[in-house]
């Protein structure tokens, strides 16, 4: 079995060694030994780190992602959770698309000032409601 030094794994994954040590500390990945003071990982760790990155990109927390790995490190992806997260991403995409369209309208609005633009006023009201909702 070929072992990867933490520096090599860092290079292959694009993650700093401090992140790799943290992931090991919280149980997301596991070193298989040491060479001196440097941690050694087996080659499947590269795949695990790619899956962790994908999970983070999809909006899963590190705790959620940790639950998606079996004790041996193999992925056990809960399909229902993946569907729910995909649905949440669809909602986020729709919201961001509306925001993008509103910003483009405001940028091109013929009103003399942004404060005279009804769409800009609506956008500001929406932003105010979003802030008060997040504080709860």
From TrEMBL:
The keyword Ubl conjugation does not apply. The keyword DNA-binding applies. CDD domains: HTH_MerR-like_sg6. One of its GO terms (molecular function) is DNA binding. Residues 3-71 form the HTH merR-type domain. It holds the Pfam family MerR_1. Coiled coil: none annotated. SMART domains: HTH_MERR. Keywords: DNA-binding. Transmembrane segments: none annotated. This is MerR family transcriptional regulator.
């Amino acid at each position: 079995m070929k072992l990867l030094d933490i520096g090599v794994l860092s290079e292959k994954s694009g993650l700093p060694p401090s992140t790799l040590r943290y992931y090991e500390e919280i149980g997301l990945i596991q070193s298989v030994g040491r060479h001196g003071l440097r941690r050694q990982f087996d080659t499947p760790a590269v795949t695990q780190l790619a899956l962790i990155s994908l999970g983070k990109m999809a909006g899963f927390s590190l705790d959620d992602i940790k639950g998606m790995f079996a004790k041996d490190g193999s992925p056990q992806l809960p399909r229902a959770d993946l569907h729910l997260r995909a649905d949440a991403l669809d909602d986020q995409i729709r919201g961001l698309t509306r925001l993008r369209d509103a910003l483009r309208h405001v940028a091109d609005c013929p009103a003399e000032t942004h404060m005279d633009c009804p769409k800009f006023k609506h956008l500001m009201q929406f932003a105010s409601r979003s802030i008060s909702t997040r504080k709860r």
